[in-house]
Amino acid sequence: MATKKQRRSAAWFSRQDIYGFIYRSWVRNRGVPGDQFDGRPVIGICNTWSELTPCNTHFRVLAEHVRNGVLEAGGFPLEFPVMSLGETLLRPTAMLYRNLASMDAEESIRGNPLDGVVLLGGCDKTTPSILMGAASVDIPTIFVSGGPMLSGKYRGHDIGSGTNVWSMSEDLRAGKITLEEFHEAESCMHRSHGHCMTMGTASTMASMVESLGVALPGNAAYPAVDARRNVLARMAGRRIVDLVKQDVRLSRILTKKAFENAIRANAAIGGSTNAVIHLIAIARRIGVELTLNDWDRVGDGVHTLVNLMPNGKYLMEDFCYAGGLPAVLRELGENGRLHKDALTVNGSTIWDNVRNAECWNRDVIHTFKSPFKKNTGIKVLRGNLCPAGAIIKPSAATPKLMKHRGRAVVFENIEDFHKRIDDPALDIDASCVMVLKNCGPKGYPGMAEVGNMPLPPKLLKKGVTDMVRISDARMSGTAYGTVVLHISPEAAAGGALALVENGDTIELDVAKRKLQLDVSNAELKKRKARWKAPKPALQRGYWRLYHDHVLQADQGADLDFLVGKSGAFVPRDNH
Ligand code: FES
To answer: What is the number of other CB atoms lying within 10 angstroms of the CB of residue 347?
Structure first.
């Protein structure tokens, strides 16, 4: 066990000199008694609250519960804000700023007198950003997610965040519903605090932190407004004090085994493709080598057990009442798909946490022997179009399109797409492959969630519901379709995607993990000679820094100089 002297906070608060005066005195200005500086664990509560992040607006309340837990366990809590990334308002995409927010979290933790930290995240990028930052410091850490919203209710039906936005938007464009109905759904979809209640990226990442063992059991599914969410926050506050006393750092939890558990959990929940990028980025921060190949190797043969939108019909509230993630992890464990000895932040192994987990509704959480969908882990594609890889989420795709050859219909960028997609004269039919360029990390910039291109209205009206779509973009975790994403290298970095022309033939064969452009090498060479790299969107500021240093999707789209960790060293005194 670490002694009080070894704690980081002692370098601030235990000093008997001018510096100790400075470090303590200003903190006391809000009524903190002197006995709080007696060497007890100092716990940071890293809060991504913001009114600009609607999914996280209840976090002040959540932070109070964490604070109470820390106090109950004899710790000294200090809450601090970091940059918050709201998926719905922030443009051009929250993903552009994930790495910036991670730097904020990392430097805020290291530069302050913190011995442990509780991270509060909810909306999509708020989870990976602050966990990446914490990983680069590597002090005892617990994650508390904000929890999903209650199910959307519209005209007697459940409607899910994102998923039904996409489907109702298609219905509107196909003339199947009126604008009044579309507007009415707007107020029915998001009716409580919390993040998206489909198995989108937020719920996926909440499930990822639970399966990584960095969150307490139950973290993924309790609704934001469920009292158990607040209890979980309070228990996290208590528990982080113990983790500091036992010096259980994040690197003890985030091991290769933990990441492999998370990859399998992602397959079992039919989770978001965004988890691929985020987990690779988090792993590389903590020093675990995780690659696209691991996703395919480890996730292969794992079935989707969870019948949730966007792959199925239920929502996170139903998932919670059916038993939540522990019931899923138990299925994986009983079928040889879980590293049972992986340590979690409550001090038990992951298997000890879930071995007795009950399932109360087998239509929501299926068994491994009778899954909802078979062998649906993320598949990694290779070929001359994506030498560094691309991914597809089979659970959200149309099975008959998983092997397909088609004529390319090319959109040079997202503006070109919007300009032409509604044109009745667009030369496209259901067998074509829609190709979108320049939406990757550098190209957009920030790799926006535009890969699930809406289908042309003229085909929607004919009843077409899915087509093969390929791009260097990401797609919302709430979206669906036969959509190939994260093509690496991206078009704006000179990848082969930049060379695709209208009329080329593209072959997709998911079983063979193949994505191939049927154009000769000689022709591709000629096209490459004519290609010009697009200029960065901005020449200065963070956008410029991002453009010059962002890695490709297969490496987690982190900034190259942020990979790895600097540790928890105590910086020099500030005066
Ligand atoms: Fe915040 Fe979906 S918009 S989680």
So the answer is: 13
